[in-house]
Amino acid sequence: MSDPITEQIHEMGRQSRTAAYALSQLSTEKKDTILRAMAQGLRDASTEILSENQKDILAGEQKGLSSAMLDRLHLDDARLEAVAAALEHVATLPDPVGQVLEDWVPASGIRIEQVRVPIGTIGIIYESRPNVTADAAALCFKTGNATILRGGSEAIHSNRAIASALDAGGKKAGLPEHSIQLVPFTDRASVAAMAGMDQWLDLIIPRGGKGLIETVVSLARMPVIKHYDGICHLYVSEQADQEMAVALTVDSKTQKPGVCNALETLLIQESVAAEFLPKVAAALRSKDVELRGCEASRAILPDLIPATEEDWSTEYLKKIISIKIVPDIAAAISHINTYGSHHTDCIVTTDEAEAEGFLHSIDSACVMHNVSTRFADGGEFGFGAEIGISTDKLHARGPMGLRELTSYQYRVRGKGQTKE
Predict the structure, then answer these.
(1) What is the rounded average pLDDT for all residues in the chain?
(2) How far apart are CA 63 and CA 221, in angstroms?
(3) 274 pLDDT exceeds 60?
(4) So what's the pLDDT on residue 2?
(5) 8 Å CB contact between 15 and 121
(6) At 132, which helix (H) or strand (E)?
(7) CA 360, CA 362: separation in Å to the nearest integer?
(8) Rounded to whole angstroms, how far apart are CA atoms 323 and 346?
(9) Which of 42, 117, 134, 339 has the greatest number of C-beta atoms within 10 Å?
(10) How would you classify the pairing of strands 111-118 and 406-413?
C-alpha cells in the first residue's frame, strides 16, 4: 500500500505529464508572454516572498548553517528583482524548440528533418538556493517542459512563496495547469518517490551536495544529469603575465567563494614559484584566504599550512585554497585530471600554443585561458538563467541552458513511398 507522500507525488507526476502535452502546443510568443507575467508575479508577491524568506533565514541561523549557506539562502529586494529580471531575460532568448538540426533527402525520396523538441517532464531536486525555483521553472517552461521541483527543507518557506507567485502570475497570461509544481514535502521519502516514478518523469536533475546527488543516482529509474563537486584549478605557467595571474587567482577564489565555479587549487610552475608565490599569497591574505601549501610551497613560504592529500580533492566552498608547485604543464594537466571534478579549470599564460595544449588535454566541462573560473556560468555564457553545470558527458555538459533541456525527433514526409 502506497504511503501518502508517494501517492501525492505520483499524482503530481500524472498532472505533469498532462501539462507537458499542453506546453508542447504553445507558441514561442505565448511562452514569452507567460514568462513576463511570471516575473511580474514575483514582483507583486515580493513582500510575502521576503517575509517567508526571513523564516528560512531565522531557522537556518538556529540550525547553525554556515555563513556561505545562509548567503545562498538570503533574499532581499535587489536579489528578488534580479530573479524576476532573469525570467524576463529568458523570454528574450531564442526558443530552441522547433529548430531544424538537419534536413536531408535520401535515395528513397522521403524528406527527413531532425527537429528539437521538449524532453517532456523534468524533476529537479535542489538545496539551499530559492532562486533555483524560479530559474529552473523558467528554463524548463521556455523549452516546453513541465517541471516538478523539490527544494530543501532550509528554503521551504521561500520556495513555496516563489512557486505560488510564479503560478499566480503565469496563470493570468495562460500558463497551463500543473506546468510548474513544487513538492510540499521535505522528507527524504519524497526524493525516493520522485526518483522511482519513471512512468511520469523523463529526466531528473539533482542540484546540491555530493550526498544528495549520489542518493538520487542510486535511486533513479530515469536518466539523471549530475552536477558534482566544483574542484576547480588555475595553473600559472612560467609564460604567465604575473599581474594578470594574481588578479585572476584572487577573483576566482574570493569573488564568491561558496559557489561551484570558485577556485579551490592553485598550481604554479616551479620555475616562477619563488617569484610568483609571495605575490599571490599576499593578495589572497589581504582577502582573508587561508593558504594550504605543498612541501615545495612551504619551502618558499614556511608559514603556509601544510596541505594533505585530502586537500587536493576537496571543494572548500569558503576562503581556503590549496597551493601546489609543479615542474611543468604536463604535471599540471596530470594533477587536474587526477584530482579535479571535471568542472572548470584554467591556464594563465601568454603562450598561445601552450594554452591550446592545455585546453585540448584537460577533461573538464569548461576549460579556460586567461579567464576567471567564475565565468563558468550560464548567465555569463549568454544562456540567461541556468539549470546547473553538468559534469556529465551525456546528454549535457557544462552550464545547462535552453538547448540542453531539449531532445529531438525525426519528422519524415513522403509522397506514398513504400519499401517494395
Answers:
(1) 94
(2) 33
(3) yes
(4) 61
(5) no
(6) helix 131-142
(7) 6
(8) 14
(9) 134
(10) antiparallel
